Amino acid sequence: MKIELASSYGFCFGVKRAIKIAENAKDAATIGPLIHNNEEINRLRQNFNVKTLEGIDELTDEKKAIIRTHGITKSDLEQLNKSGINVIDATCPFVTKPQQICEKMSNEGYDIVIFGDENHPEIKGVKSYAKGNVYVVLEEDELKNVKLNQRVAVISQTTKKIEKFMQIVSFLMLKVKEVRVFNTICNATFENQEAVDALSKRADVMIIIGGKNSSNTKQLYSIAKQNCTDSYLIENETELNKIWFNNKDLCGISAGASTPDWIIQKVIDKIENFN
Amino acid sequence: MKIELASSYGFCFGVKRAIKIAENAKDAATIGPLIHNNEEINRLRQNFNVKTLEGIDELTDEKKAIIRTHGITKSDLEQLNKSGINVIDATCPFVTKPQQICEKMSNEGYDIVIFGDENHPEIKGVKSYAKGNVYVVLEEDELKNVKLNQRVAVISQTTKKIEKFMQIVSFLMLKVKEVRVFNTICNATFENQEAVDALSKRADVMIIIGGKNSSNTKQLYSIAKQNCTDSYLIENETELNKIWFNNKDLCGISAGASTPDWIIQKVIDKIENFN
């Protein structure tokens, strides 16, 4: 069986940057998991004494607080800044952008529509920058009975699929006079999605490696699954099952933006041993 | 055979307003046909001595110039205003709006994309208000090789179909970071289109009455044709053919936004006489 990696996969710019920041910070605490990958977070704790707190309430005598790649809410940031702690911002710049857009458009009187998961930390952060009406939706239907302002600004979670974003925009075009669309889906997301789409059309079995709470990983898995029935989402090599690879010619592999190369390598090594 | 009018059809607000303006103006000249309906223009000439010029170059000793519903170019308007003639503006307010948007967005540094017919007077007028890059397209493919600014404002001809407009916006979302969409398709267009869609699904034969150079009439005809093979576009009752109505149970009728009721009535009378 041949093993082939997608032409684009794994660590994105924002994750690489955040890990470097955390490694340099040492002895710091992150507010929420720095990235959506438990194994990499364990590595940072073991090697750099970077611990993970659930929220700012858990801060006690830490000297440095790292803001996770997904960002935090505006009020949490203000509270941190007031507390006198050394705040190290590892928010992905592609997430800072929608936060800024949300604040600016809201100040200009636009209603804000965010295409994303209400419970995802990135979206909690972005949403907190709106001072007026803000609606977080995954489906255009959720806006059906909403009385919107005639000027609406639309933002997407950085890791969403463009097709659904287009549908939501089309729906809004029917409802309001001005739809100001900011395509805040990040390029790495685009590229990883396109690569997994192409590879999964050819592969007999697809392995997607990434955190099960990672939005971009779940998107990759859903794209792979559409093209290749035998697609599996795993966090690490221990979840692999030899039976998946029986009578397969091509095994495609991709990984979410928070998945470090060393985990991908362990997965490849184990699959090769099955052969 | 039953004859049924679409639930919304014919004269729109802008056309009614323009005709009233022309009737009150008397002895004036319009720059280009006031509306896209030759018969109504003949009536205005005969009853109110309102003549139709091809362009401002044809003006000689007229005292009053009427601007047509579709508007004129910015430079023509400036020249008219300078000439000292009494300028009477019958531009539909729903056309003035995209002109203003085009000018404002262009001043703010946006590239402008107009979904419309390059040769339609409305679009010539709207386009003339852009001072920077402006692209008039009917299909998203026409933008494939265009190097666009990362901020694009999109406007539609008032009489276009929303579905294609959505496709163009979706395409732009893939190309640029900000797509500022102004849905400038007018409500009357929407309503007439929806009504013809519903009626033509039930009718056995559809008659669409309107100018053959009228954009909104052509859209109505194309919608009717999709649902009902036996659809016909006519300018007046002389074009009717008795054979179209043989063995039909339901004849649906609609008319473009420039079609006066008296023409529609003549058509109905003649079809009734076929029965």
TrEMBL record, chains A, B:
The keyword Cell division is assigned to this record: no
Binding, (2E)-4-hydroxy-3-methylbut-2-enyl diphosphate: H36, H70, H120, T158, S214, S215, N216, S258
Record function comment: Catalyzes the conversion of 1-hydroxy-2-methyl-2-(E)-butenyl 4-diphosphate (HMBPP) into a mixture of isopentenyl diphosphate (IPP) and dimethylallyl diphosphate (DMAPP). Acts in the terminal step of the DOXP/MEP pathway for isoprenoid precursor biosynthesis.
Residue positions binding dimethylallyl diphosphate: H36, H70, H120, S214, S215, N216, S258
Cofactor note: Binds 1 [4Fe-4S] cluster per subunit.
Residues involved in isopentenyl diphosphate binding: H36, H70, H120, S214, S215, N216, S258
Organism for this UniProt entry: Campylobacter majalis
UniProt similarity note: Belongs to the IspH family.
Catalytic class of the enzyme: oxidoreductase
Protein's UniProt name: 4-hydroxy-3-methylbut-2-enyl diphosphate reductase
InterPro entries to which the protein is assigned, alphabetical: LytB/IspH
Cofactor: [4Fe-4S] cluster
Record's catalysed reaction(s): dimethylallyl diphosphate + 2 oxidized [2Fe-2S]-[ferredoxin] + H2O = (2E)-4-hydroxy-3-methylbut-2-enyl diphosphate + 2 reduced [2Fe-2S]-[ferredoxin] + 2 H(+); isopentenyl diphosphate + 2 oxidized [2Fe-2S]-[ferredoxin] + H2O = (2E)-4-hydroxy-3-methylbut-2-enyl diphosphate + 2 reduced [2Fe-2S]-[ferredoxin] + 2 H(+)
Pfam family, one: LYTB
Classification of source organism: Bacteria, Pseudomonadati, Campylobacterota, Epsilonproteobacteria, Campylobacterales
Residues noted as binding [4Fe-4S] cluster in the record, renumbered to the chain: C12, C92, C186
Pathway the protein takes part in: Isoprenoid biosynthesis; isopentenyl diphosphate biosynthesis via DXP pathway; isopentenyl diphosphate from 1-deoxy-D-xylulose 5-phosphate: step 6/6; Isoprenoid biosynthesis; dimethylallyl diphosphate biosynthesis; dimethylallyl diphosphate from (2E)-4-hydroxy-3-methylbutenyl diphosphate: step 1/1
Keywords: 4Fe-4S, Iron, Iron-sulfur, Isoprene biosynthesis, Metal-binding, Oxidoreductase
Residues annotated as catalytic: E122 (proton donor)
Enzyme Commission number(s) of this protein: 1.17.7.4
Record carries keyword Metal-binding: yes
Gene designation per UniProt: ispH
HAMAP family for this protein: IspH (MF_00191)
GO MF term list: 4-hydroxy-3-methylbut-2-enyl diphosphate reductase activity
Superkingdom of the source species: Bacteria
